């Protein structure tokens, strides 16, 4: 009888101890692999905050009849930037259907390949071209008395500089600042066609000078008229020049 009473007291004590024990299961974090769910969430948040680079190169496939100038105009850039950005292009005047052209971003810094290419073309043409059959280079000068067409033109006394003169012959071609190859890029941005072959009525461009093409001869030479001859405002000149004398033209 006493033994049974002792067992009953012991059972009551054990039951009371179990009811008062703390629960630890609630604070145990769940795991997934080697990371806790908290770590996974932190990593996901970190990835969401990392900057994303969605910028992709624009690649144009050359179609029949395309030129660097036409591709540049369609993509809001210049042919010189296309040439500088694509080392696979050896000659800016020679691209073929199926070629891939990368269009550089507007803020991309590019090495200047154009200047060397134009200089090489000019040298090659000068070496390959035969001498004109009749080299008619006249250097007669006279004072040009008409005032400049543009109020922003380079005007000295009552004479014109070369820039004013070509503008008077081609009013659709603006005075793009000082004469030089910078006129080519400015003309392209204005929607003008440019190239390396002389044409009657074109503006001939070389380093530091522009002229007006009067005619092209069968032997490849061409006749230009110009102002500012020998860097003297108002000095008019007309001459026949060898192929390659002027590197580029605005049509």
Automatic annotation (TrEMBL):
The keyword Nucleotide-binding does not apply. Residues 58-103 form the LysM domain. Residues 137-251 form the Peptidase C51 domain. It comes from the Bacteria. It comes from Candidatus Southlakia epibionticum. SMART domains: LysM (SM00257). The keyword Ribosomal protein does not apply. Residues 25-56, 123-142 are annotated as: Disordered. This is LysM peptidoglycan-binding domain-containing protein. Residues 25-35 have a biased composition (Low complexity). InterPro entries: CHAP_dom, LysM, LysM_dom_sf, Papain-like_cys_pep_sf. The lineage of its organism: Bacteria, Candidatus Saccharimonadota, Candidatus Saccharimonadia, Candidatus Saccharimonadales, Candidatus Saccharimonadaceae. Keywords: Hydrolase, Signal.
């Amino acid at each position: 009888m006493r033994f049974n009473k002792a067992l009953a007291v012991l059972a009551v004590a054990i039951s009371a101890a179990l009811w008062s024990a703390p629960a630890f299961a609630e604070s145990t974090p769940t795991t997934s692999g080697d990371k806790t769910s908290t770590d996974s969430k932190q990593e996901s948040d970190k990835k969401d905050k990392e900057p994303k680079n969605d910028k992709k190169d624009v690649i144009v496939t050359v179609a029949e009849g395309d030129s660097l100038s036409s591709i540049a105009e369609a993509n809001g850039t210049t042919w010189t930037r296309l040439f500088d950005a694509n080392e696979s292009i050896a000659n800016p005047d020679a691209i073929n259907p199926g070629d891939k052209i990368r269009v550089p971003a507007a803020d991309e810094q590019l090495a200047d390949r154009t200047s060397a290419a134009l200089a090489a073309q000019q040298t090659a043409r000068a070496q390959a071209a035969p001498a004109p059959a009749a080299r008619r280079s006249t250097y007669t000068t006279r004072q040009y008395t008409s005032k400049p067409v543009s109020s922003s033109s380079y005007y000295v006394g009552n004479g014109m500089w070369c820039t004013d003169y070509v503008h008077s012959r081609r009013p659709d071609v603006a005075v793009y600042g000082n004469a030089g190859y910078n006129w080519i890029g400015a003309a392209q941005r204005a929607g003008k066609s440019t190239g390396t072959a002389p044409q009657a009525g074109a503006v001939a461009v070389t380093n530091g000078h522009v002229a007006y093409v009067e005619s092209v001869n069968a032997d490849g030479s061409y006749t230009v008229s110009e102002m500012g001859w020998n860097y003297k405002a108002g000095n008019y000149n007309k001459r026949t020049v060898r192929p390659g004398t002027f590197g580029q033209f605005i049509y």
